[in-house]
């Protein structure tokens, strides 16, 4: 394999890694709000609780449910919920 081939393969590998990272963000985030989705939240919380149990530590969890989310987003999205997708 030539040096040129190695360079091309390296560049392609880097592009694939960047695209995979963007896709991963799209999979774990809600498109409307940019916040993490339920599936990611459940997985992440399970991992965090397990880690705290193993270390015999403490953890706190707070969840907020916003009524009339569409009204809230229409007023606040430009400031608080901007999320850039691919």
Order of helices and strands: HHH
The structural class is mainly alpha
Terminal residue distance = 33 Å
The share of residues in extended strands comes to: under 5%
Q: Which stretches of 5+ consecutive residues score pLDDT under 50?
A: 79-86
Helical content (DSSP H or I, runs of 4+): 55-70%
Q: How many distinct domains?
A: 1
- Number of distinct helices: 3
Task: Look at the structure and give the mean pLDDT.
Answer: 83
- Assembly annotation: single chain
User: Globular, elongated, flat, extended or rod-shaped: what is the shape?
Assistant: flat
- What is the rounded Rg? 20 Å
Please report the total strand number as a whole number: 0
Largest sheet: none
Overall description:
Residues 28-68 form the GGDEF domain. One of its GO terms (molecular function) is diguanylate cyclase activity. This is GGDEF domain-containing protein. One of its GO terms (cellular component) is plasma membrane. InterPro entries: Diguanylate_Cyclase, GGDEF_dom, Nucleotide_cyclase, Rev_trsase/Diguanyl_cyclase. The chain has 86 residues and is mainly alpha-helical. It has one domain (3-80). Helices cover 65% and strands 0% of the residues. It has 3 helices and no strands. It has helices spanning 3-28, 38-55, 69-80. The protein starts with a helix and ends in a 6-residue tail after the last helix.
